[in-house]
Amino acid sequence: MKYPEIPLAQSILQICKAKGLKNIIISPGSRNAPLTIGFSIDPFFNCYSIADERCAAFFALGIAQQTLEPAILVCTSGSALLNYYPAIAEAFYSQIPLIVISADRPTTKIDIGDGQTIRQRNVFENHSLFNANLEDEASSKNDLLIQEAIRISYSKKGPVHINAPFEEPLYNTVDETSYKPLITHYKPERKPEINFDLYKAVFQNTKKKLVLIGVQNPNVLSEEILQKLGNDPSIVVMTEITSNVSHPNFVSNIDTLITSFTEEDFENFKPELLISIGGMVVSKRIKALLRKYKPNAHWHVDEHRFYDTFQALTNEIETNPQTFFEAMFADNHFLESSYNDSIKTIMKSRAIGHEKYLKEIPYSDFMVFDQIWKHLPSHIQLQISNSSAIRYAQLFKTPSEIDVFCNRGTSGIDGSTSTAIGAAVANNKPTVLITGDISFLYDSNALWNNYIPENFKIILINNGGGGIFRILPGHNETPVFNTFFETEHCLTAEHLAKMYRFDYETIANETELSPKLKAFFNSKNKGILEIFTPTKINQDILKQYFKAVTI
Questions:
Q1: pTM (whole model) above 0.85
Q2: pLDDT lower than 70: segments of the chain
């Protein structure tokens, strides 16, 4: 087997292999040639070539999201590296492990006017967990820096950056390695001891407990714990669509419940104890509610990060949610409380109003989402883009056998399609991406990808612009709004679908919805279903919904 001639490249390759890192996403370039040659020749690695660095980074994010192991990004020097930044920030806030290995000019070539050269050292400093700025020559010091970056990405669940300077010639190879790196072994970090008895005493004597679950991977909580949470009369569990947990007694559409609350309702609902688990929360309404009607205590349970989202955080509990709730429910006898029953009564009423309203509305974004949810196949992976798509999705109950993901770390629209494709590559389940037109068009280079599985499908809801800005407060129908906020356009995905060999179908009215959705989901080919909806009635239908469900 051939190896790059440069010893530093040999060191990086051998360490990555020794640590079991298999998924390598490479963007073409010259300065990274030693790494590209080494990774691509060795059959141990799964190498993917993605030309657009921004798409490559989100593609890697999707792989790491599914495997829960670091994916490696490799790029050339210069501005190529900067295109990784949106995905790096997303990985940082979503706690997804990524390893960036950037090729660089030798340090003597920086800031002297050499081509394709920028200041690459520490370029992700604000959003990376570790920065390994390697010296020009292979050394044990470099070896330790590389391995520390890998260890931190694994253990802390986030992005790290390894910057590796290479001098020309870059393409030379040898038959045997000339450098043997110093390999160290990880020592498991000792977690701080937690006195669960102190928390348990409060937990088991509090009659109004709210458990709020944000972004979370599937199977974080056992079925036994879910049953105990759902059946405890003193607990109300609120879940986001990205929480990947389900129980008949959980509140899975938060905004439907609380948007029409009166002051009296808010006071009655106000929890004594808030326990939050998981990542970012989509619902602005629950954030506003809990910031105004603060709980007496807020515990956040996580192994790595603690955000004071509701400005009421009192305890950071550094453990996994399963361990925490096992301790809380140990020998637990449920308290007498009306907290859960009072919310269940309201939710039953809301459900009736929900179904009644959906039967009355005209063809619109809301109707389209209702029909999509009625036709979703079982046992799929559902990827959802940001802005209005995730907000509509929050209003529907998703079957427990469907896994749901969305880039909520930074809530950007920039890489939803690329992430979904990476996730589809890493997961054998059929994958469906539900996206809006602006998000889809923004990330259209995601389709410039030779690895898209045949069971990957895109539902593209095209309402002619950034419909989210019509939903948000402050919208005024003016030329400035239409051009600079909503971004009005007349574009479609038809020619993109043809260029990238996707099946393509459209829907433009209510009559076509059900039969074409059925046919789309039954197809064995990768495809794009573009659903055209009216531009100017969606916000009124959504706003009226929150009044209509209060019956």
A1: yes
A2: 466-486, 551
